[in-house]
Write a structure and sequence with these properties.
With about 210 residues, this protein is of the alpha/beta class. It folds into two domains: about 50 residues; about 140 residues, Rossmann fold, CATH 3.40.50. A five-stranded parallel sheet has the order 3-2-1-4-5, sandwiched between helices. β1, α3 and β2 form a beta-alpha-beta unit. α1 packs antiparallel against α2. The longest helix has 24 residues. It is elongated, with a radius of gyration of 21 Å. The relative contact order is 0.16.
């Protein structure tokens, strides 16, 4: 099932708004039954009105990075658990195509909602860094000019952050297969295509098949 939220940050805001909504209704009801009913009607009306406006809002302007240097081709790669997959490495080598190419890999630090809420991200970043280091080593061993960094836990936000400094010509996003990928469930590929004016290649890495 696809998540209706664009990011975990949106989901947390939604939870707090729901809590506040319920608290105000209960407080109003405790003061007076009719006041509680009035608060319910007003807040529900505001929520529905906001939801309709948001649904009818204009689509966001697609973001494009500044042009890359004319003497090189730049590829931004976004992957986490699949960052070391052979399918991803093969796609990167094919996209490079013998040109002078720079690769920049962003590995979002995946974390549980609870640890994100408590700002406990050290373990997630360490695991992501280990995967990233191994992947960069594989790329450099076949002659690719590759760098990398740990990015925001929301992969779309991680892409946006990287665009400010790397200026890629194209984007590669790697995920698990459908049914096992949280990124696909959250619509990361569709959101990225909608938000960024860059050629995007989606690479599916089946780690279970690779191990067998």
């Amino acid at each position: 099932m696809k998540s209706p939220f664009r990011s975990e940050r949106d989901a947390f805001w939604f939870v707090w708004l729901v809590i506040g909504y319920c608290v105000l209704i209960v407080v109003g009801y405790k003061i007076d039954h009719w006041l509680g009913l009035a608060v319910f009607v007003v807040l529900t009306g505001v929520a529905l009105w906001f939801g309709v406006l948001r649904g009818r809002g204009e689509r966001p302007i697609r973001q494009a990075p500044a042009p890359s240097p004319p003497d090189e081709h730049r590829i931004l790669v976004v992957a986490n658990e699949t960052v070391g997959g052979p399918e991803l490495l093969a796609e990167i080598r094919e996209r490079a195509g013998g040109r002078t190419t720079r690769i920049h890999v962003v590995s979002p630090a995946l974390n549980s909602p609870l640890k994100t809420w408590t700002s406990d991200e050290d373990e997630a970043r360490q695991i992501a860094q280990e995967r990233l280091d191994a992947s960069l080593g594989s790329m450099r061993s076949v002659g690719l000019d590759a760098s990398g960094e740990i990015g925001d836990g929301d992969p779309v936000q991680a892409i946006e952050d990287a665009l400010r400094t790397f200026r890629p010509d194209e984007l590669i996003v790697s995920t698990h297969p459908k049914g096992r990928s949280q990124w696909l469930e959250r619509g990361v590929i569709e959101r990225s295509r909608e938000r960024f004016a860059l050629p995007l290649t989606h690479v599916v890495v089946d780690l279970d098949a690779d191990r067998s």
